[in-house]
Design a protein that fits this description.
327 residues; mainly alpha; globular
């Protein structure tokens, strides 16, 4: 990132009251790594634009979370209801599967932290409860918050060097940031996951309008969009790209604010259309295998920027003709 852009962030975040519209505009194209936690907290509304109130709010929210741990998590299993035991079992199954390519998330203290966040979120959101996929969504928040306490790449981070107090603060902030993000997409995780079903339907209609031959080819081969894009929506594409690029993706998602749900449809379409030529040459089996393990392992920030730029252009092109976005 250029020095000029970093200076713009420094100037903006140094103001007594941060202009959130300007922050959204800047953060859409990526945030500097060291300023990412503060940018995200402001964009999510977890912290207020007025800097004088931030310390007090952080202290209160961290205290609230700390009080929830003994109330909901640190209790004997025989004091839990059947539903709560089911939720705890599901979380404990999913946590070891979280971010499979990132060793840091498989360290015991980090997994315990993930388990607490996810279990408490599920218990406090009974409309959906914990659903598989939410475990992935908390990882960018933890990574961004922890980056303030470590130097170098995640492979070199040692969680044991952090004090208990620091870890609790990070865990609490990650919990509340996850809450804020999921508030806007909770219907992705309620019974039968209607939000995901609608998003997949809208994605298919959008792709049909952009590239009718590819859509037709998929239909002829018997490939349903739900077969490959359910996971994309469920994990907001995190599982399809290298983890560090997920942080860059989150910059744009959070900068979109309430518009994230709609922008996601364009991002999914741009992502799929990256391989439109290849897919048109494949039969059903080849497409399924290809889409299950996309060739993104070597992707860098330029690749994800191209997807986001195309998504931006698609939205601009189709913004006035949005029949594909109507349920």
């Amino acid at each position: 990132m250029s020095d000029t852009r970093v200076k713009k962030f420094d100037k903006l975040l140094g103001e007594q009251v941060v202009d959130l519209d300007l922050l959204r505009e800047l953060a859409w194209s990526g945030t500097p790594g060291d300023l990412r936690p503060l940018c995200w907290q402001l964009l999510l509304g977890y912290l207020p634009p007025n800097r004088d109130r931030r310390e007090q709010i952080l202290a209160r929210k961290r205290r609230e979370y700390r009080d929830m741990v003994p109330e909901y998590y640190d209790i004997a299993n025989n004091d839990r209801s059947e539903e709560e035991m089911g939720a705890l079992r599901q979380v404990s199954v999913d946590v070891p599967r979280t971010a499979p390519g990132v060793a840091f998330f498989h360290e015991a203290p980090v997994q315990k932290c993930l388990e607490r966040i996810l279990y408490i979120w599920g218990i406090r959101h009974p409309a959906s409860g914990y659903v598989q996929g939410i475990n992935d969504l908390v990882t960018p928040f933890l990574a961004a918050l922890l980056s303030q306490h470590f130097d170098g790449p995640m492979e070199l981070w040692d969680i044991e060097t952090l004090s208990e107090e620091t870890m609790y603060a990070v865990e609490a902030d990650a919990y509340w940031m996850l809450c804020k993000m999921l508030d806007g997409i909770q219907d992705h995780y309620t019974n039968a996951q209607p939000g995901i079903q609608r998003t997949v339907f809208k994605l298919k209609e959008l792709v049909r309008r952009i590239d009718e031959p590819m859509c037709q080819h998929m239909e002829t081969e018997g490939l349903e969009f739900l077969q490959f894009s359910f996971r994309w929506v469920n994990c907001l594409l995190l599982r399809e790209i290298p983890f560090q690029l997920g942080l860059r993706l989150w910059d744009t998602y959070l900068a979109e604010g309430p518009g994230m749900k709609e922008f996601l449809i364009y991002a999914l379409a741009a992502f799929l259309l990256t391989w439109e030529k290849e897919l048109k040459q494949m039969d059903f089996q080849e497409m399924v295998l290809f889409l299950q393990k996309l060739p993104t392992t070597e992707w860098n920030e330029t690749d994800i920027e191209m997807v986001l730029s195309r998504a931006y252009m698609l939205r601009a092109s189709f913004n006035d003709a949005r029949s594909h976005l109507q349920s």
